[in-house]
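Progress note, sequence design subtask.
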C-alpha cells in the first residue's frame, strides 16, 4: 500500500522543471534564462539544465527531454493518473461485486507493480500517459476494493 503513496506523492517532483542555462552565441558563455528563451531558436543556440541549482534533479523532464514541452502536457502526467482513478471508481468496484474482491485486488496490485516498473524505463511522454492512467485504474483495485475486502473479512462479533 505504501509503495503507491510514495509514487503518487512524488509525481510533482517527477514533473519539476529545472533552472536552465542558455548560450546565445556559439562558444559563448552560458547564462541563466527562462524556458521560453531557451526554447526560442532565434535567441538561443544551445541550452542545458543548471546543474548547480538546488532544484535540478534527475526526473522525467530530463529523461524524456521535456524541456521545451508545454506546461499543459507536463501537467497532464498527474492528471492522467487522477483520470484513471476517476474512471476506475465507476468500473472496478462494480466488477468486484461480479467477479469477486480478491481477484480484482490482486489484479490491481500486479497492474500497479507493472506501472511502477514501466515508469522506470519509459522514455515516451504519451506512453507515460497510458501508464499513469493504468496506475489510476490499479489504484481503485488496490485501495477501494481492498478496503471492502478487508471489511468483509472482519469477524462480525468479537
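Output:
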Amino acid at each position: 500500500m505504501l509503495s503507491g503513496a510514495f509514487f503518487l506523492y512524488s509525481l510533482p517532483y517527477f514533473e519539476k522543471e529545472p533552472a536552465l542555462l542558455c548560450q546565445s552565441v556559439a562558444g559563448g558563455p552560458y547564462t541563466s534564462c527562462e524556458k521560453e528563451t531557451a526554447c526560442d531558436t532565434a535567441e538561443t543556440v544551445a541550452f542545458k539544465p543548471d546543474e548547480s541549482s538546488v532544484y535540478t534533479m534527475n526526473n522525467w523532464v530530463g529523461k524524456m527531454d521535456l524541456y521545451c514541452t508545454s506546461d499543459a502536457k507536463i501537467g497532464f502526467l498527474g492528471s492522467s493518473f487522477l483520470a484513471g482513478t476517476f474512471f476506475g471508481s465507476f468500473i472496478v468496484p462494480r466488477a468486484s461485486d461480479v467477479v469477486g474482491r480478491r481477484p480484482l485486488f490482486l489484479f490491481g496490485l500486479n497492474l500497479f507493480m507493472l506501472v511502477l516498473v514501466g515508469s522506470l524505463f519509459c522514455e515516451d511522454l504519451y506512453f507515460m500517459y497510458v501508464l499513469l492512467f493504468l496506475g489510476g485504474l490499479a489504484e481503485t483495485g488496490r485501495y477501494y476494493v481492498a478496503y471492502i475486502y478487508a471489511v468483509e473479512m472482519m469477524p462480525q462479533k468479537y
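The radius of gyration is 21 Å. Work on this subtask will continue into the next period as scheduled.
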